[in-house]
Amino acid sequence: MAVEPVIALRQIVKTFQVRDSVFRSHPFNAVDNVDLEVHTGEVMGLLGRNGAGKTTLIKMMAGLLRPDGGTGRVLGYDVYRDHKKIRASVSLVAPTADIGTDNNLTVRQNLEFWAVVYDLDRQLRDQRIDELLTFLDLKSYEDHWPISISAGMRQRLAIARSLLVHNPILFLDEPTVKLDAAGAHAVREFIRKINREFGITIILTTHFIFEAERLCDRVAIMDEGRIISCDSVANLRRHLQRYDSSVIQCGEVPESLRREVRRHLGALPQVMSCSFQGDRAEAAQLEISADPLESVLFDALKILRAHGIDIHAVDTNEPSLEDIFLNTVNSKGAS
Amino acid sequence: MNRFLRASLSFAWLELKALRFYPVNGALQVIRSFVSVGIWFFVSLFLREFAAPDLAEYGGDFVAYMVIGVLFFQNASSILALPQQSLTTAYWDKRLEVYHSRRHGIWAFIVGRLIWLFVYDGVIMIAVLAVGLLGAGVKLSPDMPLLPALSFYVVFVLTSFGIGLIGASNFVFLEIKQGREPVTWLVDVLVRIFSGVYYPLTIIPVSLRWITWCLPHTYALRGIRLVMINGMGFGSWDTLSMFLALLAFCTVALAAGVWLLDKGLHRAEATNGMGIVG
């Protein structure tokens, strides 16, 4: 993956005026000093609770809102001066599939309508629409009214609309919200496929942590308008838990052998600690903490085998992204 | 420009599809036009003799005066309200931001709806006039020059559209996201009273007549009547002066409307945006 940033934001601020009454309003900091870099071909997830500022940040990156402070470039365009150029060069799928879909037009007609609005050449228009209908498994629904197909299919239609022009960046604002499990799974598969096959940089917001975990190369965790943590899921895990640990379920390990094994394991430079748990000699548990765990696990298993110890199971206690998210939000990124 | 026109025509096509999907709406709109012109037709028929002396310059025919006034005023009113109505409808349908995600999406959307309304209302107006002429005995000049008639109509539509755009900028400046906004509402009210839609300008008190000449509708309706009832073309200074005044209003209204709405859209980007979801 190339490392050239397609989006580079520095200290970006956005404040909304929230109207209390006809004459009174109060400011609300929707996005507060956000720094973010997104690289070509990357799938970046924005995670956060409702009102965390994810959608506002996406709108600023998509040229729909101008920041109140900070600096930023999207595809080399300035977020203040070139917002029209930014809008012309990125695609955005809104949170609800029905947004931008016209129920008076069939699935195909919807795409034909947007193809004209997107100014696609007449020759290219039909070809691109056919490609997308096939790619997104909508071909058999092309003459259906949007209202008569499932929400998942409508979301695919919304994605198809955004892919009519091959823009290098695609923003997906909660792409699977309101979809059933099967629909959400299908959309996630498409997102992966789009990223893989077209090399499109994707920035998506989601409430679903497992979705971010499955799709995203990196995630930015937002809370109260700030990005409180931004890294790959693996690195976020590492930050949360200083040392990864593993529990190896073994067969019988006499006390003398336990000491010997601990000595050998302790000699490995990555191992932070190791100990046998369980009083029963015939079913011992070896707990190893190491940084990083994966580099030491193979050697540890070799040592156990060399000492004639049966290995029944190996468990790692990696924290899920949900653990990371809750921990990060609760400690406001301090971890 | 070509791209913009294609996109606008695409939005006009959307309106046509909506009409084909719900033809009853179209039929009701046609009936409504006939009903409102019809009501004023009978009122004018009733008052014909009484009004004749005040309408000497139009041949004393109050019926033709009234039908043309009401028909063109209705059309202008629809176009006046169109830009704000388009923005609010798209806003509540959560489409405005999607349209805005294209470079000239909102403009293409508004212009597309104007094109549609121009054609659709134009057809209805021709139908109403045809019924009036052939079925109800409304008398228009047999020598009516088509080019001046068409020119007045087009410039009148564009003037109303320009004022509509000025009003639509209040979608952002005054945050009016629903219903009518004050500029087009005020123009609509003043026009009803002061521009001679329903009665000759001579009955308006002299001290208030200056208002009539501040309204483009006054020039448009007078010009259209001179062309359609009297058969006077641009060879007549009376007709030409009305047309030139209307053209001046049109230029100012369109320029101000485009400028203000564009400023408004920029302001929306810099403030709270154009979507319901913040």
Walk me through the structure.
The complex is a heterodimer of chains A (335) and B (278). Chain A has a six-stranded mixed sheet with strand order 6-7-8-3-9-10, with helices on both faces. Chain A is α/β, with parallel strands linked by helices. Helix content of chain A is 36%, strand content 29%. In chain A, a hairpin with a 2-residue loop joins strand 9 and strand 10. Chain A has helices spanning 54-61, 83-89, 107-117, 122-135, 151-163, 181-198, 209-215, 233-240, 255-266, 294-306, 321-330; strands at 5-19, 25-39, 43-48, 69-74, 77-78, 90-93, 169-173, 201-206, 218-223, 226-231, 244-250, 271-277, 285-290, 311-316. The mean pLDDT of chain A is 84. Chain B has helices at 2-21, 23-51, 62-92, 96-100, 105-135, 146-168, 170-173, 182-194, 209-212, 216-228, 237-270. The mean pLDDT of chain B is 92. Chain B has 278 residues and is mainly alpha-helical. Helix content of chain B is 74%, strand content 0%. Chain B is globular and about 60 Å long. Chain B starts with a helix and ends in an 8-residue tail after the last helix. Chains A and B meet through strand 1, helix 1, helix 2 and helix 3 of A and helix 1 and helix 4 of B.
